[in-house]
Amino acid sequence: MPVIALLAPKQRSETVFVQRHFDRLRTIGMLVDARFADGANEVLDRLSDVECVLSTWGMPKLDESLLARMPRLRAVFYGAGSVKGFVTPAMWARGIVVSSSAMANAVAVAEYTVAVIMLSNKRFWAMMRSSRHVAVPGNYRRTVGIIGASLVGREVIRRLKGNNLDLLLYDPFVDSAEAVRLGVKKSELPELMSESDVVSLHAPNLPGLRHMINAGMLARMRDGATFINTARGAMVDEKALIAELETGRLFAVLDVSDPEPPVAGSPLFSLPNVIFTPHIAGDNTAMFLRCGREAILTLKDYFEGKGTRNRQYAFP
Question: Any idea which fold 106-276 has?
Fold first, then answer.
């Protein structure tokens, strides 16, 4: 049986892996509990026979010195999202397989995003402070612009289809044929900003995309339109966004900021046309358990010779 190490901060791992996960793991291989409280150095002497690692947020960086402690390591199953924090060139040199539960996190962020898109088209943010009964646009034939066909962006699109919305997508890596398969209309960013009633940002946080949403792009948005950001704050020129919001022309739903959290006294906390949440779109108990379950199922597939495919399904 393969030797599997649970190598993760003890407190954080308890939100991701529960008893039923451990019971499943013991049917797959021999489980080594290498959870730690203050640092991975506490458990290094337990890793010499490990063939695969199961982990989550707080995973130690797998550099040459740590890999030297695990000469038999061949795969890492990460019950969380981005692997950038621990993957190193030394891992690739060894040919170590890496699998992430990013799709489980994407589902949670998409749930939040779709909910606020649907409410935005009903002018919920304006109406919740009003005592007057007035007609609101609703969702029928409204235009939603999605920036970035990431895991989250694609899941948002999937969930929005069937709601009689017109969906625009800006992603330079998606061609027209793929756009048709996704059920969206391919658009350039300026046109998307101009034509959408709601704009939702799902692009990757890369240096070249810093402030991709700038004053010029924001000025293109329709009066009364809503801007949603559940990606990263650095991709938005926050000063420009605040200046536009202070005119009262736009609404915004922001789960991220730059810096994060916002500086004390930021208008994001007080503007009546802003809904601000503290980076919680994907941060919920169900998402943590989905991440743990996905990591273990992928680990099981790997040792059964089925590969490490990303299963995109509704998680129980």
Answer: Rossmann fold (3.40.50)
Q: What is the DSSP letter of 80?
A: S
- Strand stretches in 109-149, DSSP E: 143-147
Residue range(s) occupied by CATH 3.40.50.720 in the chain: 3-100+285-303, 106-276
Cα–Cα dist 233/256, whole Å: 5
**What's the CATH fold of domain 3-100+285-303?**
Rossmann fold (3.40.50)
Nearest alpha-carbon partner for 219 in 234, 240, 197:
240
Containing 246, the helix (H) or strand (E) segment is helix 238-246
> What does the alpha-carbon distance between residue 33 and residue 31 come to, in Å, rounded to a whole number?
6
pLDDT (tens digit per residue) in 219-277? 999 999 999 999 999 999 999 999 999 999 999 999 999 999 999 999 999 999 999 99
Q: Which residues are catalytic?
A: 232, 260, 279
Whether this prediction's pTM lies above 0.90 is answered by no
4-36 residue pLDDT tens = 999 999 999 999 999 999 998 999 999 999 999
**Cis omega before residue 89 (within 30°)?**
no
